[in-house]
Amino acid sequence: MAKKTKYYVVWQGRKTGVFTDWKECEAQIKGFDDARYKSFESIQEAEAAIQRNYWEFVAKKENNKPALTKEAPASIGRPIKNSIAVDAAWNTASGDMEYQGIYYATGERLFLQGPFKDATNNIGEFLAIVHALAYLQKKESDLPIYSDSRTAISWIRKKHANTKLELTPRNKPVFEMLQRAERWLATNSFSNKILKWETEYWGENPADFGRK
Hints:
Structural class: alpha/beta
CATH superfamily of the largest domain: Ribonuclease H-like superfamily/Ribonuclease H
Number of strands: 8
Shape: globular
Number of helices: 7
Distance between the termini: 16 Å
Binding site for Mg(2+) 1: 87, 208
CATH class of the largest domain: Alpha Beta
Enzyme class: hydrolase
Largest sheet: 5 strands, mixed
Radius of gyration: 17 Å
Number of domains: 2
Order of helices and strands: EEHEHHEEEHEHHEH
Pfam families: Cauli_VI, RNase_H
Oligomer: single chain
Subcellular location: Cytoplasm
Strand content: 15-25%
Domain RNase H type-1: 97-212
């Protein structure tokens, strides 16, 4: 079965426009401060989107979620709008990992890190939560943080990334980041709640990279 083509709109980057190849899109946004982009399923959607404002599509993301199969129980409810959502993306072919944090209420990207060589998705999810905690501490904010990774949330509670990844020259920077993250957790306190993003009921994590 042929791979389904995605269309990538770049509103803000080195070059703007519609791209049909992820690598070409990535070249416009990687390392570019406050890059703004989104993937679409059809060329018609992408061409219409480039003529409009980026924030329209980010803000409407929740309304564009696929239909859910069941209603969330009262114990889960709805996600808190005034929050930060974090997520990581891991390329199974290259082993590259990156992560980002999004302010859920507006869709504004607060930070984007990576890609990092020879990492894992769990490591990215863990680093993203710690990054969000440190970011909020500087802002003196007690906003909750959403992650869809139970593993990363458990690592945060233990203040230790229990990864089985082996250290190599290529991923040494990742291990250095893990050490700094664990040191931060050990030496800082925080009141922010770390909450599970319930994808089954709420749809995709707002910080999802949209490359599935």
